[in-house]
TrEMBL record:
Residues 147-156 have a biased composition (Basic and acidic residues). The keyword Heme does not apply. Residues 1-96, 161-259 form the HTH hxlR-type domain. This is Helix-turn-helix transcriptional regulator. It holds the Pfam family HxlR. Residues 132-159 are annotated as: Disordered. Keywords: DNA-binding, Transcription, Transcription regulation. GO terms for molecular function: DNA binding. Gene3D superfamilies: Winged helix-like DNA-binding domain superfamily/Winged helix DNA-binding domain. It comes from the Bacteria. It comes from Aeromicrobium fastidiosum.
Amino acid sequence: MGRTLGLLGDEWTLLIVQQALQGVGRFGQLMSALPISNSVLTSRLNLLVREGLLRRHIYQTNPLRAEYVVTDRSRALWPFMLAIWEWERRWVPGHAEQLPTMHHEACGHDFAPVLSCGACGKAVEAKDIDGDWGPSGSWERSVPESVTRRRSDSDSARSSAGLFPETMMVYGNRWASALLGAAFRGVTRFSDFEANLGAPPTLVAERLRAFVAIDVLVATQNAQRPDWAEYRLTEKGRAFYPVIAASLQWGQEWFRAPEGPAIVQHHRACGESFEATFRCDECHEVLTGHDITIVGRSDRTIAGEEDR
């Protein structure tokens, strides 16, 4: 889990993978598409190749030219990206108008993804799932690996211009993603966040302030100790669970430890092991990456005008 959070909890990783999934794979194309320096792009591409999310393909030998293409490992991130899109669409004011429309080819409708149990098919929320550490799970092993240099919030704000601004605040920092995971596991007090994550207190305070500012957490007073602040998930924060579930499932599949899974989850309603699946809210069938098309708003507008 530390390896997964270290990769997905980095804004540049997500931005580069997002571009690669759309077919932008040449170095110059990525430089033009992203507000990124030459050295940072080079280091992230090397990392993504090393971790199996991209493959370097030589398409010209004289002079040498290469492009970076997606692998099965990066293509498997589509549920994670879809969950991010849905959360931003519903919970970030003003950003929904900028996002493209997702169309389900199987039923012919625009859709919203619904997180569901793979065993019984029912829609689920965080409160419906019981989870505990598995054979390879612990707080220590869930601390994100420092696979990239930590960047300042001002740098993060600039880099997130091409993707999802509030998601980058919640997940585009390796400690932020770990702190949110702790909140979903019931941690509420500052000292407990600090102790469980092993993070510097200044960093914990910075992340908590940022989460409160965007209404993902709310600070409340402890009933027995008014001098203690407790940080609890808001409705908006709880709605981020599909993103967490998708990232956990991806990590468990592609970075499984030899001794077994890091987290074991069960769906309370049916009692089966929880496997996160996403269903179409229109036809209720399980979504697959092949059945989803992205329709830009400008394309939809033009199509509508042509129909008229």
